[in-house]
Amino acid sequence: MTNDYIGSEEELLDKVRGSYDEEPMLFYFWSPHGLLGELELARISLPPDVEDKMYPAEILRKVYWHEFRTYSPSAAFLIDTFSYSTADQIEMLGKIEKLGMTPEEVACEWVQNNRVYWQNWIEEMENTPDFVPNDSAAGIIIVIWTACIQALAVVILALYLYKRKHPLLVATACHPSMLSLIGGIVMSAVSYWMIGEARVVNCAGATVMSGLGYVIMMGSLVLKEYRVFKLFLSDSKKLKMKPMKDTHLALHLALFLSIEISIIVLWLAVSPFDTTYLHCRPTDGTFYSLFIFFKGIILLACIYLGYKTRHIDFFAEGWNVTIASVVGSLVGIVAIILIFTLPVLGVVLTIGIGTPLFHLIFMCCIDIPKLWKAFHTTEAKAREQVSSSIISATASKSVSSLSVNKSGLSTGTSDK
Fold it and tell me: Average pLDDT of 286-295?
């Protein structure tokens, strides 16, 4: 036996590989290493007095931030339970050295073949992230999607301002529609709050943006439909003789907002969020249920009033509002189903994709068709159509007097 002194690990590896099929070799090495999976090598047991002089086994320890378990118990649990055998590691390293596989390919293959083994690592982890990482594909898609919907809303808002004096928009009271658009923009912004880590400020911001935006958007439509319902369909002469101007609409909307703000403030004060890395959960479901219930009442009122005023074409846009509300409700139902059937994807779709989609549905059903008519109908023809619609709408109801002004429909003193 001859002794060779090797200067580096690379020289040793070259020597072993070059002499593997030619002559036996005895060398000092460590495990785990890719060479042990690449070549068939045998370990030689040395006498005890020699074994005692060898390097002791290194104990690998898991170290993380002392508050990490409180900040993210799910991730801490994964780190604590993560473990696999030295034999598995040698096999994976050997595939990288011998077969030229990438570490990602080797890891993916191991995960696919050892589900029973690693399932225990995550069995206590919640798999419904409310938030998505900043640099993830889902996060980028959500940001782009939301920004496009909001940009469309801004364009429609600008067109409303440009054509606000058109008789058709005056008759349909474009101010509530513009306010509804602003509410939709605010509501859609909830998607931005769902990108990143689940901090208390993110959870609270998402709650506030979605709640206030929804109430402004849907509350404006409800009050607009109610104004037309009062004038044309109510059996109470007292209601008919009290016009509901835009200032009154704003006051009623402020009442809706005060109710929503009260729910949110009480919720955040009494039942703050329990946050982890990708989760945002209320500690008590009472206020969350009340939060959802109030929005359901507004949506049902919108459907009811839209359906009741469906035949008053130029003022209520009842069919448009009804269709948008029903389709929006279906989107909400599908979103709930996705949450329970596809936990991870379901929440991402519901918050990041579903909220802007809800706003898009209302723009496509209400705002875009109305602007299309305004741009393709002359003012003279629009005035004739508005007058005809008033006569048709009041034919079966006794209305003292009606006029159309810049604030929309209101009762007046003339017989126009």
Answer: 84
